[in-house]
Amino acid sequence: MIRVTLPFHLRNLAQVGKEVQLLVDGPVTQRAILDKLEAEYPVLRGTIRDHTTQKRRDFIRFFVCGQDWSHESLDELLPEAIVMGTEPFRIIGAMAGG
After folding, report:
1. DSSP string, 40-98
2. Backbone dihedral region for residue 41 (phi beyond 0: left; psi -120 to 50: alpha; all else: beta)
3. Does domain 2-93 have CATH number 2.60.40.2550?
4. Dist CA 13 CA 97 (whole Å)
5. Where in the chain are the domains?
């Protein structure tokens, strides 16, 4: 099971707790996780990625094993810690300003 943590506003929208668990078939990539997340929770479609381009929305970041993967290829294989569920795939709402 893949563990995914969501920011507060997306948890409220999907009516879930801080973390959801997903069963991802095939290679575990950011794209595979996001596709499964949007399939399980259709209300999240368009909130994390643009409907048309499938690009990450501004102010949404992806963290993998403590590293920012927001600009990595969506099709790059994720580390074993994510695949095995020992570490969560984190979706974080970023803030602007200072």
Report:
1. H-GGGTTTSB-TTT-PBPTTEEEEETTEE-TTS-TTSBPPHHHHTTSSPEEEEE-----
2. beta
3. no
4. 25
5. 2-93
Looking at residue 88, its pLDDT comes to 98
Alpha carbons 31 and 89: distance in angstroms, whole number: 12
Judged on CB neighbours under 10 Å (0-12, 13-18, 19+), 14 is: middle
pLDDT digits (tens, 9 = 90+) for 25-62: 999 999 999 999 999 999 999 999 998 998 999 899 99
Q: Answer whether 94's CB lies under 8 Å from 62's CB.
A: no
| Closest CA relative to residue 60, chosen from 73, 72, 47 | 47
pTM assigned to the model: 0.93
Q: List CB contacts of 5: < 8 A, sequence separation 6 or more.
A: 18, 19, 88, 89, 90, 91
